Amino acid sequence: MKLRTAIVGPGNIGIDLMLKIARSEHLELVIMAGIVPDSHGLKLAEERGIKTTIEGIHGILQEANIDIVFDATGARAHQMHAPLLKAAGIFAVDLTPAAVGPYCVPAVELNLGGGVDNVNMVTCGGQATVPIVAAINQVVPVEYAEIVATISSKSAGPGTRQNIDEFTETTRSALIKVGGAKEGKAIIILNPAEPPVMMRNTIYCKCDTRNIDKIKEAINAMVTKVKKYVPGYHLKIEPYADGERVVAMVEVEGAGDYLPKYSGNLDIITSAAIAVAERYAQNKLKGVNS
Q1: What is the pTM of this model?
Q2: Average pLDDT of the residues of the chain
Q3: Which fold has domain 3-122+268-285?
Q4: Which residues are paired to 206 by β-bridges?
Q5: Which Gene Ontology terms cover its molecular function (predicted)?
Q6: From CA 140, how far away is CA 270, in angstroms rounded?
Q7: In the annotation, is 207 catalytic?
Q8: Which one of 3.40.1280.10, 3.30.1370.100, 3.40.50.10580, 3.30.360.10 gives the CATH number of domain 124-261?
Q9: Using one digit for the tens of pLDDT, what is the confidence trace for 6-54?
Q10: Which residues contact 279 (CB under 8 A, 6 or more apart)?
Q11: According to the annotation, is 159 in a ligand binding site?
């Protein structure tokens, strides 16, 4: 048995989600929604025999027995979608920086208990860096965490560009609320280099660096956890102590399901969203949550 899912937002993220759901043992995509009739994503869905609608969220709400909706639109749109999905009793996986529901970083916190009906997947930069900050915080308190997410300009679609301000604020907040840092800052760089660069994320954490060996162990263990659902996630630079801070760099190579492998920023957030939906589906099918 599979849970019935829907995607609202047929852009790059929505298309990548569609391809990943097709491989899922617990999820079935029954409808993809957009608002532009000639959307490339809707055409691809139709070619795969998936029902489509140009009525956006309202088209999904007219479909019977939807269990999960992946929202791949934008922060403002999700703020309107969230109460509608809640009223319909549909679990929402929010891939925008809206942060209506609790932050969810699978390797650190899944946030599926206590009747949660909407989870926020933070941002691509948050999914890549929050686990490293959390790993360091397991060993020593992180006084301040600063991350710099660098992605290829070619892999930043309209949604990413329109939500840059929300990206930085949501990522900063997640470094604190999920990563455990007392203070945080997030920076995103769209690199126009040719050939396109892989997604790279540099993490700086102000903390007691005397236990650097234990910190390295914790970071490596966390990388292993992330790789279970994002195989292309790996350390680009081994963590090291630089005075009062620990520095690490992670690189994310995408699976290449839809966009090229340099688009790790796309792959990490869609992979994390699928991991959450899979867990929700397993729990629901077992009767753990409703």
Answers
A1: 0.95
A2: 95
A3: Rossmann fold (3.40.50)
A4: 144, 245
A5: acetaldehyde dehydrogenase (acetylating) activity; NAD binding
A6: 31
A7: no
A8: 3.30.360.10
A9: 999 999 999 999 999 999 999 999 999 999 999 999 999 999 999 999 9
A10: 106, 110, 112
A11: yes
